[in-house]
Write a structure and sequence with these properties.
- The protein has about 425 residues and is of the alpha+beta class.
- It is about 35% helix and about 15% strand.
- The chain has 2 domains: about 170 residues, Creatine Amidinohydrolase, Chain A, domain 1 (3-Layer(aba) Sandwich), CATH 3.40.350; about 250 residues, Alpha-Beta Complex (Creatine Amidinohydrolase), CATH 3.90.230.10.
- The longest helix is centred in the middle third of the chain and has 24 residues.
- The structure holds glycine and manganese (II) ion (MN) (2 copies).
């Protein structure tokens, strides 16, 4: 791992919170992700499943976590099954978790090698009535592959058809949406690394630079600061590319006078950051670009103030829509008739701003969270208003990550990342 060790109190507390929500005499199982193949003997880099990571800190393939809080044998209340490490594996693949290291990382005392899993699971299953399985119920999930978790669930249900089944997803959706202070520090670290990348880019951008050269500047700074990668596929979109919402080619030359929309964040220790900044290729916004930029920035500032305990996610979006409508009227992009005749299901402002303003952010960039329940302190949300104007050859989005506070305005984890148009211009011309 490139990241520094994480205080294992986080994982101990996460397990305690999870098991407190389990039914009597039940156990829960969580699997690592597979290492996905490319072809021949090449593979994609390993990415741990965020749930087993959240509950154990184990960042290794072929791992299984079992939680059985009512188990008659105390040593079986928390178990890790890990792939056995030996000298041969150490030589070819490098260090894997030993039982002792796994205990240090996770705080779990009972660690078995994977080859003992079936035998020990048989004992555990004879002692429990209900098994919690971990299905992917994220509102944006669209998974075509069978995961390691899916295969394990199939095996378990076939081998133990008389057990009742319960869902881990609703428990995790709730727990993971409210961040522990240790998690907020990790997200802050990811945001700080993103800041370093952005400041480097402000010094680097000039007319005729290529979008992929900007991407390269970011990843250089990320790797130098112990981030292993982009938290999500980065968008570096100059000119009209900014109006393609999921533009990820990043293969065009940036022309003098255009803007560049950059939606880029570093990961750190599997935690995301999610930033968008829009900057002028030539180091100065023109008058129209600045007017639209400042409108987006004002909406962002006002929207952020609404992220307080008790706010309803859907109602918040309606309010942001009203702010957006007023700004679009002032910019002459909408007129009164557009608004009077608008379709309530697709209001007029959506011509220029067609995506959501906020999502939960954390171990997943689009993190877990139940969007029909009121916002709570220590939830982390993005705020990302935008105005896309293909007819004028540019689009502007600004995005910060903020933590909801018990009282008052949210705490902005990206407070140090330049955003005011004048500051961006000053930095680009200094
Ligand atoms: N970068 C993905 C998003 O802003 O939601
Ligand atoms: Mn976002
Ligand atoms: Mn983003």
């Amino acid at each position: 791992m490139k990241y520094y060790p994480i205080n294992n109190q986080l994982f101990i507390k996460n397990r305690k919170n999870f098991t407190a929500k389990m039914k009597p005499n039940s156990l829960a199982v969580f699997n690592s992700n597979d290492i996905y193949p490319i072809s021949a003997d090449s593979t994609m880099p390993f990415e741990q499943h965020r749930d087993i990571f959240y509950l154990s800190g184990v960042d290794q393939e072929e791992s299984i976590l079992v939680l059985f809080p009512d188990c008659p044998k105390e040593k079986h209340r928390e178990i890790l099954f890990l792939r056995e490490t030996n000298e041969h594996i150490a030589i070819w693949e490098g260090e894997k978790l030993t039982k002792d290291k796994a205990f240090q990382v996770s705080g779990i005392k009972t660690v078995y090698w994977l080859q003992d899993m079936e035998k020990i699971m048989f004992e555990l299953m004879t002692q429990c009535d209900t098994v919690y399985i971990n299905t992917n119920e994220h509102y944006r999930a669209n998974v075509e592959t069978e995961t390691r978790e899916d295969r394990y669930t199939k095996w378990l249900k076939e081998k133990y058809p008389a057990h009742s089944v319960a869902k881990s997803a609703p428990i995790l959706q709730r727990l993971r949406s409210v961040k522990d202070p240790i998690e907020i520090d990790l997200i802050q670290k990811a945001c700080d690394i993103t800041e370093k990348g952005f400041r480097r880019v402000l010094n680097f951008v000039k007319p005729n630079v290529w979008e992929f050269e900007i991407e390269a500047e970011f990843i250089h700074e990320f790797l130098n600061n112990r981030s292993k990668k982009f938290a999500y596929t980065p968008i570096v979109a100059s000119g009209n590319n900014a109006n393609v919402l999921h533009y990820i080619e990043n293969n065009q030359q940036c022309k003098a006078g255009d803007l560049i929309l950059m939606d880029i964040g570093a990961e750190y220790a599997n935690y995301s950051s999610d930033m968008t900044r829009t900057i002028p290729v030539s180091g100065r916004f023109n008058k129209r670009q600045k007017a639209v930029y400042n409108a987006v920035n004002r909406i962002k500032i006002e929207a952020t103030k609404m992220l307080i305990p008790g706010t309803d996610w859907a109602a918040y979006h309606v309010e942001v829509g009203k702010l957006m409508t007023s700004e679009l009227l002032l910019l002459g992009l909408l007129d009164k008739a557009d608004v009077q005749n608008e379709n309530p299901d697709w209001p007029a402002y959506k011509t220029y701003f067609m995506h959501g303003t906020s999502h939960h952010m954390g171990l997943d960039t689009h993190d877990y969270g139940i969007l029909t329940e009121p916002m709570q302190p220590n939830m982390v949300f993005t705020v990302e208003p935008a105005i896309y104007i293909p007819d004028e050859g540019f689009g502007i989005r600004l995005e910060d990550d903020v933590v909801i506070q018990e009282h008052g305005e949210p705490f902005n984890l990206m407070r140090n990342i330049p955003i005011e148009a004048d500051e961006i211009e000053d930095l680009m011309n200094s």
